Amino acid sequence: MTTFITPTVVAKEAILALENNMVFGGLIHRSFSNEFKKVGDTVIIRKPWDFATVHDFAGTPTVAPETIVETSVPVILNKLNDITFPITSKELSLDVKSFSEQCIAPAMRKHAQEIDYVIANLMLDVAAHYPVTTATPCVGDIAGVRTQLNLNKVPFDNRSVVLSPQTEQKYIVLDAFLHAEKRGDTKALKEASMGRVFGMDWFMDQNIRTQTSAVPITTGSTVTVSTGCTAGGSAIEVKQIGPATASVDVGYVFKIAGETNDKGHVVTTAVVATGGSASVTFAPVAQSSVAAGVTAVFQVAHRANLAFHKNAFALVTAPLEPPMGGARGEVVNYKGISCRVVYGYDQQHKENDISVDILFGVKTLDRELACRLVDV
Fold first, then answer.
1. CA 311, CA 269: separation in Å to the nearest integer?
2. How many Cα atoms occupy the beta-carbon half-sphere of 348 within 13 Å?
3. Do the beta carbons of residue 319 and residue 340 sit within 8 Å?
4. Which phi and psi (to 5°) does residue 102 adopt?
5. What is the pLDDT of residues 26-71, one digit of tens each?
6. Per-residue pLDDT tens for 228-253?
7. Contacts of 62 (CB under 8 A, 6+ apart)
């Protein structure tokens, strides 16, 4: 019996291929809107609950109910990614498996890479960081990342670490990884898995971002605080940052000597130095007062490998409206992701084509649940 390659068949194959090829997209919180949306729309998603305190009933034998406040987070669907390719009757005459391998799978691998690339850019929101200590890989770095997550009070379940190919090369030869149990729920996660080590699932993704700057901070990335701030402050003045035109970019991470915050801070507003100094706005806020004269150490150019809990980031998708005007199309939703397939005709080139597009947005839900493994 012949199965015709209809938009419905293509859409189902496409959504399965997308699910099987995402790494980051398979490790973070996913949310889905049931309503048709368009690019630029905002979706409100629920943020996972957290409880502030535990009441000591033995000390005070009266319950103290805690008010549960459900937090909602707006996510802008600002990514509408499309892949359109010509199709002939020859391809449409293939069986479903051959058509998927030849046409759909390559397109969805590219879609998956782009989604992972956008998610990886959320490293710009992550303040906590642990530097690779030496050029020689060591188990101490793995323990250091775990310690940083522990200091952040990250839950033990659903912890993942995603490394760049260059960083993976350093660590995959260690005995801890050579003998680790491989894990993964989809094809991409199975293939990318380095194993579970120290209570974290380790993966490789080619889309890990690099923190760079056109004119980086100099003098060993160490600067002097010229104007400090009180506890709860989010801005300091720094000096001795090298050239007068040096820039401090969004996403730079740094630690301030003597401050009780052992997680670090991340720059939230880009600034160009004037006269060798700059006013730096950062998050999270200072936990203790910062005095003038102390030093701050910036980590400038590095591969921003990410260790995180599932609820640190979110991927949100929504269905696009089916086509009007006679074009054939299908919208399919699966495991919190959605894609649309449309059959069209290119009048200019006199050929049929297939379009596969995905509407999505990403968001950092809680920067405290993530940490960078800084590799220079």
1. 25
2. 1
3. yes
4. -85, -35
5. 999 988 888 889 999 999 887 766 655 565 666 667 776 666 656 7
6. 999 999 999 998 777 767 778 899 99
7. none
